[in-house]
């Protein structure tokens, strides 16, 4: 027998009034404060694995940092795309949870694990071809060889990372984010310990292998945790997700259609965005290994902070998804706007720190004299980038949680594929602005994306207020 989530304390009755708004806003702020910090640190922890590698490599050898930086370009693209393809687990689980269907939540998790395994296998095979890809696009031979070897060891962590993301998304959707955070913290400790041994002997290859082993650890830990939940029977976690006659894969394919639909749209959107950043990394590689290393460090900082914004986006989309699941559209709108406001405050603080303490932030990554002049203007721009990027990722997630998976994807394509990629080439290569030009292009694309998505979310809320959602 399933348990339904508690009935909302402040049920919507007619047009919202001041008391209703006040109570609901307090409730959403309270829920974000309870969930978001754990989700934010968990998302950031995924990139902290790479950050630790960059920092520990950056204190030793700029060339090894360049290898690792170039290797991380296709890896981050595939990893972020993969995370997107399993995000349907979070959206559909939040809808089921909002409707009180706990056994349906459990079925989503079971289906999601198989999807993560299949997609992870495909992405791992693609990642292992990175060395060949670097040579085909004209990267300098020694840089392509060194980066290709590091990319091979990185690729071993792709599938475990997707399994971890599936479990983490599911737990967050049922408002239990702490286990995912604990797993990622433990994985970072494992990674740093392994780095201290492997980097000295194997450089970038050792750092990549250490991180892959840490990803295996965190995936296994979270799967075992969910499998042994105390209320696993209420969720039906050990029951077949798609019982019945016929081939298992056919039944699974039909049963997982809804979550795959959201996963396709989110994966394509994340793919557009991360691909545009990876193309910029290739531009940086054409400028030399110092530029490749500097862009990689700046991009790692951007990605780390982006994961923090992605955590806020995930927490907000859970609130939006639960409200959508019970067809409470005024509450859905409030959940989205509260999340956007909280993200603006958080990213505003990030911007202030990066623009006033640029030199200190750079010193955390490297003391190499050939990298610092390239990094100072890049890190300064990252502060402003995060304002736009933080808002656009929250907007993308709340639009998808409102059952509009493909519109956000299209707007992401316009912003990153049509604006950022060509503009990056023009500023960095044609106008010879180098690494700084790459980050200027990223800033412009983030502003365009946030503006387009913000317009769509505003229209969606207006339509809901008129009863046309």
Please give a handful of descriptors for the protein shown.
mainly alpha, globular, single chain, 17 helices, 469 residues, disordered N terminus
Concise description?
This protein is mainly α and 469 residues long. The chain has helices spanning 18-58, 62-85, 88-98, 102-127, 130-136, 141-155, 158-173, 178-227, 232-235, 248-255, 257-286, 289-325, 329-356, 358-365, 372-401, 405-430, 434-465. The chain has one domain.
CA distance, first residue to last residue = 32 Å
Count of domain modules? 1
Please compute the radius of gyration using only Cα atoms. Answer: 22 Å
Q: Quote the average pLDDT.
A: 85
Helix content: over 70%
Walk me through the structure.
The radius of gyration is 22 Å and the shape is globular. The two termini are 32 Å apart. By secondary structure, the chain is an all-alpha fold. Helix 15 runs parallel beside helix 17. Residues 1-16 have low confidence and may be disordered. The protein has one domain (18-465). It is built from 17 helices and no strands. The longest helix is centred in the middle third of the chain and has 50 residues, at 178-227. The protein has helices at 18-58, 62-85, 88-98, 102-127, 130-136, 141-155, 158-173, 178-227, 232-235, 248-255, 257-286, 289-325, 329-356, 358-365, 372-401, 405-430, 434-465.
């Amino acid at each position: 027998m399933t348990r339904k989530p508690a009935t909302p304390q402040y049920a919507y009755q007619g047009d919202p009034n001041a008391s209703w708004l006040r109570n609901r806003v307090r409730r959403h702020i309270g829920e974000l404060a309870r969930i978001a910090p754990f989700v934010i640190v968990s998302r950031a922890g995924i990139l902290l694995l790479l950050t630790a590698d960059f920092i520990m490599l950056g204190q030793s050898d700029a060339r090894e940092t360049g290898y690792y930086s170039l290797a991380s370009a296709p890896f981050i693209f595939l990893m972020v795309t993969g995370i997107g393809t399993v995000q349907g687990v979070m959206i559909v689980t939040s809808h089921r949870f909002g409707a009180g269907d706990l056994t349906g939540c459990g079925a989503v998790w079971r289906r999601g694990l198989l999807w993560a395994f299949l997609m992870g296998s495909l992405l791992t095979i693609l990642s292992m071809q990175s060395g060949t890809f670097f040579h085909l696009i004209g990267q300098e031979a020694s840089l392509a060889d060194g980066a290709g070897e590091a990319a091979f060891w990185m690729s071993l962590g792709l599938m475990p990372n997707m399994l971890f993301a599936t479990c983490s998304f599911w737990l967050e959707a049922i408002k239990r984010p702490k286990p995912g955070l604990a797993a990622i913290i433990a994985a970072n400790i494992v990674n740093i310990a392994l780095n201290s041994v492997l980097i000295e002997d194997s450089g970038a290859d050792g750092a990549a292998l250490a991180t892959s082993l840490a990803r295996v650890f965190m995936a296994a830990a979270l799967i075992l945790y969910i499998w042994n939940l105390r209320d696993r029977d209420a969720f039906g976690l050990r029951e077949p997700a798609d019982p019945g006659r016929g081939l298992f894969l056919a039944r699974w394919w039909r049963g997982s259609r809804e979550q795959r639909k959201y996963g396709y749209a989110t994966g394509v959107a994340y793919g557009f965005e991360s691909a545009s950043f990876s193309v910029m990394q290739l531009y940086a590689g054409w400028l030399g290994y110092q530029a490749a290393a500097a862009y990689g460090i700046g991009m790692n900082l951007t990605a780390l902070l982006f994961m923090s914004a992605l955590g806020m986006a995930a927490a907000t989309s859970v609130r939006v998804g639960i409200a959508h699941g019970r067809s409470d559209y005024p509450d859905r709108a409030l959940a989205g706007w509260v999340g956007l406001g909280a993200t603006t405050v958080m990213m505003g603080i990030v911007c202030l720190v990066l623009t006033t303490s640029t030199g200190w932030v750079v010193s955390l990554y490297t003391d190499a004299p050939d990298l610092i002049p390239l990094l100072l203007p890049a890190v300064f721009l990252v502060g402003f980038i995060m304002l736009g990027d933080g808002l656009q990722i929250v907007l993308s997630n709340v639009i998808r949680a409102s059952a509009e998976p493909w519109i956000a994807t299209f707007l992401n394509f316009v912003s990153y594929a049509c604006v950022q990629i060509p503009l990056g080439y023009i500023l960095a290569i044609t106008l010879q602005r180098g690494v700084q030009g790459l980050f200027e292009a990223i800033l412009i694309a983030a502003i365009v994306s946030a503006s387009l998505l913000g317009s769509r979310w505003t229209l969606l809320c207006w339509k809901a207020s008129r009863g046309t959602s």
